[in-house]
Amino acid sequence: MRPVAETQPPTPTGPVSARAGELPTVQLPSLPDVPSQVRLFGSGSFFRLWLAQVVSSLGDWLGLVAVISIAARVGGSSDAAIGVVMSARIIPGFFLASVGGVLVDRWDRKRVMVVCDIGRGLVFASLPFITTVWGLFLVSLLLEILTLMWSPAKEASVPNLVATEQLTTANSLSLVAAYGTFPVGSALFALLAKVAEIAHRSSFQFLHVGQETLAILFNVATFFLSALLISSIRFPRQEREKRGRIDLGRAFIEIKEGWHLIGTSPVVRAVMVGLATGLMGGGMVVPLGPSFSKQVLHRGAAGFGLLLTALGMGVAVGVIGLSAVQKRLPREQIFPLAILAAGGCMFAAACMSSLAPAMAFVAGMGVCAGAGYVVGFTILQENVEDELRGRIFAALYTLVRLCLIVALTLAPLLSGLLNRLSTRYFDRQIKVGGFSVGLPGGRLTLWLGSIIIIVAGTLASRAMRAHLRERSAPTRS
Description:
By secondary structure, this protein is an all-alpha fold.
């Protein structure tokens, strides 16, 4: 096969389709016989954009773990400090996601992505100078705002870089880049702890480089590399029509419509309750994980990184496994079972007092959560009419963010309250069959979170059964 030089996507000669108020999307012809990476990715330009997303997503996940670790240190191992910092990664998307999409449609997308990557790198570079929880809150807020600009700019650029028949493959590859790097970032953070330990014992100890510093430096490099990759891509020039004023109330309108549409059918209620409420329980793992690893598992930040790695790998296995076999499974029965099993695994993980079994159950939780994610989204896509689908998913994303805010802010408060009650009434431990079981607030709150997931799975199961009865009932003429 002869090598084929990468060329700029051809200028369209036929009609260019675009909805009112949207940028036109160029319909590209099929690509000729090209090297394997171009056949898979649709074009060399999208391949470079995908590489930029892989690098950028790796920086996102590594940065998330690093910020949690720094928040735990700066806040004196306070779960509340972690909850405050993490809420900054949720709040902007809850209020500004739609506004960010409108702005991206008015600006040059390539420039938006490059500027946002450079901006994220510079913001992360300021982390070594942050010594307060509220400083970390501000850093996290800025990072999330820049990410909310980068992501829609990237998604809106994909149809202009690949042929129409390659869009499904391109979207799947983007999903792999976004979430497949999560376990890699978590594992890398744990590895950097060993690198820092070796550095302290070597001739480089005068640098005083710790795990967090190495993670920050690596993270800054990933964002700058992503900006460099994107700057090398030739994006087709698009004619942009003049648009009216930005409607800042659009996000609130979507929230109102979403809440109204949640109750339109039993199947929608089932998926909404299962995914959103279940995520509220599972979201408690993030602010409570560091203290659980330190107080119960006695493994510190490295142990927390390994727990996140196990969770991410479990999610990947669940997503890939269900994607391969879901056509042969009864999705309406599998979805609530996956949610229930995720809650059971989380409860079992919180019962563990050593790292290895805790990682095993956390991985099991990830498998079930990933499976539930795939099945839930498939059920919605199959059962919601096209004209309602966008608003239903907007409602789901809004509800998910709301539940995450509740989890990130409520979990640390519950942990502190339950810790005081446990100390007062049980001396933070009980005897079970001759064994002493520690009852720190973090473990008790994780148990409560797992119960929330199990309740969500039960409610989803009831709603799904109502949907199946409705579907099997004879239609009256």
